Amino acid sequence: MTTTTKPAPPATAAPARRPGPVALTLRQGRLEITQFLRSRESVVFTMGFPIIMILIFAAIFSDEIAPGVSYTQYFITGMIATGLMTVSFQNLGIWIPIERDRGVLKRYRGTPMPKWVWFAGKVLMVVAIGIAETALLLAVSVALFDLELPGTAAKWLTFGWVSVLGVTACTLCGIAISSLARTARSGSAVVTPVALVLQFISGVFFVFTQLPSWMQQVAAIFPLKWMCQGLRAVFLPESFGAREPGGSFELDRVALVLVAWCVIGLVLCLTTFRWTTRRDG
């Protein structure tokens, strides 16, 4: 008598494991960085603009603005702040309207991916490009213009929190201002004039105390002026603080204003950000 064995049931495939929040964030951040690097114009402008400006201004101005402080050293601190603002506020304010106009944001909203992942990817891109740009700018400044790097842990700590708060505020404001652009082409027209005006009145191209008093008061409303002031506390001698409008570097006020702009930027993002264009409803 023969016995028959029943065939084994087919193995069922294990359900695919969904990536966790960290994996999603890193994947989106890698995608954003790749897209940025593929845009040669953005890479050249973001990474090269601060260095080109330093080379130009260093060739024009070679005098000292204070004992032991050359104009070039003063200008470098402003360009570090400007570089951080460019990669965050300006780039996001220009590129988000382009993605919105092309329907990229609308498609993102229709996917199962949590909406916060898209924002996290933008933040990772800003952080990565900002670090690379700042490192390149510091390397060129040390090699060509004798910029002295911070010699104490306290100054490096100040450099860290000023940069983090400044980039956070500028990133949130860049996302918020992107909603003002009606089309992809108008993003640059909306954001670039704002960025240029802030640079001129915030002590980037000129010594801040030599600007008209009304201009100083207007600049004090916005974060770029305080980013520049905080970075001057890092890279310039302690004695230079007496030449600031408040008679010192006022790091406590720098922190207060930048934190306030982080809150303001977050509120503006939550209340104004749009995933679709006005014509899409």
UniProtKB/TrEMBL annotation:
Its main location: membrane. The keyword Transmembrane helix applies. The keyword Transmembrane helix applies. Keywords: Antibiotic resistance, Cell membrane, Membrane, Transmembrane, Transmembrane helix, Transport. It is a multi-pass membrane protein. The chain crosses the membrane at residues 43-62, 74-96, 116-144, 156-177, 189-208, 254-273. It holds the Pfam family ABC2_membrane. One of its GO terms (biological process) is response to antibiotic. It is found in: Cell membrane; Membrane. GO terms for cellular component: ATP-binding cassette (ABC) transporter complex. GO terms for molecular function: ABC-type transporter activity. Residues 41-276 form the ABC transmembrane type-2 domain. Belongs to the ABC-2 integral membrane protein family. This is Transport permease protein. It comes from Micromonospora citrea.
